[in-house]
Amino acid sequence: MTTEQRMPIESGVPDHFQYMHPVLRRNYGQWAWHDRPRPGVLHHVSRTGEQVWTVRAGTQRQMDVHTIRKLCDIADRYAEGHVRFTIRSNIEFMVADEKKVKSLVEKLQQEGFPVGGTGNSVSMISHTQGWLHCDIPASDASGAVKSLMDELHQEFIHEEMPNRVRITTSCCQINCGGQGDIAINIQHTKPPKINHDLVANVCERPSVVARCPVAAIRPAMVNGRPSLEVDEKKCICCGACFPPCPPMQINDPEHSKFAVWVGGKNSNARTKPMFHKLVAAGIPNNPPRWPEVAAIVKKILRVYKEDAHDWERMGEWVERIGWPRFFELTELPFTKYHLDNWRGARASLNASTHIRF
Ligand code: SF4
Ligand code: SF4
User: Fold this and answer.
1) What pTM does this model have?
2) In which element (H, E) is residue 282 found?
């Protein structure tokens, strides 16, 4: 038996201070004020008098190693060797010398990386993982973002919106979807299709039964094998049963649709944080460019840009003009799917915290 002490396994991100630009490290918590000399460039001045310029650029999100090497080369040659990614996966280069900003911006633009995403622009759309990393997505959220940002390029490089616009996408309904001025989320519209031959081998049936928020799943014997069945009248097509039981396939090329939600925000500025509301449903999940989603998002953005007061976030604008006027201006059809008349939660919502995975 060894007496050597076993070291703990460290997990999580490493200490970020070691990777910071030295000016940021020295002035951490000391910033006195900042301004934006142009879209995509931030200028911070510290109480100590030191200054730093940050150049923000958009990327194609899912990056190959050649692109990352190219961005690192730009950081070494045109900046000061330090980069960081924002929570929306913009890349930022920091320089302490103002003279480097112009050539850095030009080099990024020349290599196809748009400089922008600051202030009242449409910043990069945050997205969930999509087909590349996750095992349950109904769409490629990152692909939808890339094709949409191609169309919103002008709004990224200019700051011409009434206020900042934060757009999010999500490739399933139950997990990582976020709040946004505009949120683009998958909605399943049919109950799962069960492959009864596989359920007994793959699924832990009690966990799947416990997972359903409306108690629509129950154990069943099918063709002499233990399986599951779904009460389709109760099923709300949420897809929560699919991750723990892949034979309950919920994704469908035709019936998994996109929906657009409007007016969410996390910020406390001027008004409280707001939940977004459904404005369009049943939009085709149509890769590789999702043109139907892009058309609706662009229409909402155009009307918001024309009609909102300065500094009104999208939700604040809709609250001022009212939802009926929002539907008139955007010419989106108001349908029965916009009415939240589901009362099932009172009787059947599985709200207990036991058996959760
Ligand atoms: S939103 Fe859902 S499908 Fe998309 S990455 Fe998150 S868990 Fe996976
Ligand atoms: S978990 Fe969701 S999709 Fe699955 S049966 Fe229940 S309500 Fe329907």
Assistant:
1) 0.89
2) strand 277-283
Cα 293 to Cα 201: distance, rounded to the nearest angstrom: 39
Ligand closest to CA 208? 2
> What distance in Å separates the CA atoms of residue 153 and residue 47, rounded to the nearest whole number?
36
How far, in Å, is the centroid of ligand 2 from the Cα of 158? 43
For ligand 2, the distance from its centroid to the CA atom of residue 259, given in whole angstroms, is 18
CA distances from 38 to 84, 105, 255, 300 (A): 20, 11, 44, 26
Q: What would the two tokens of residue 274 be?
A: 């707001």
Write out pLDDT tens, residues 316-353.
Answer: 999 999 999 999 999 999 998 888 776 665 665 555 55
Kindly state the average pLDDT of the residues 122-137: 89
Helix (H, G, I), strand (E, B) or coil at 294: helix
Coil, strand, or helix at residue 141?
Answer: helix
Single out the residue of 118, 117, 80 nearest to residue 99, CA to CA: 80
How confident is the model at residue 353, as a pLDDT? 53
How many Å apart are CA 247 and CA 192, to the nearest integer? 9
Q: Which alpha helices (DSSP H) does 43-195 contain, by range?
A: 65-78, 99-110, 141-151, 153-157
Nearest ligand, CA 133: 1
User: 101: which strand partners?
Assistant: none
Residue nearest to atom 2 of ligand 1 (CA): 172
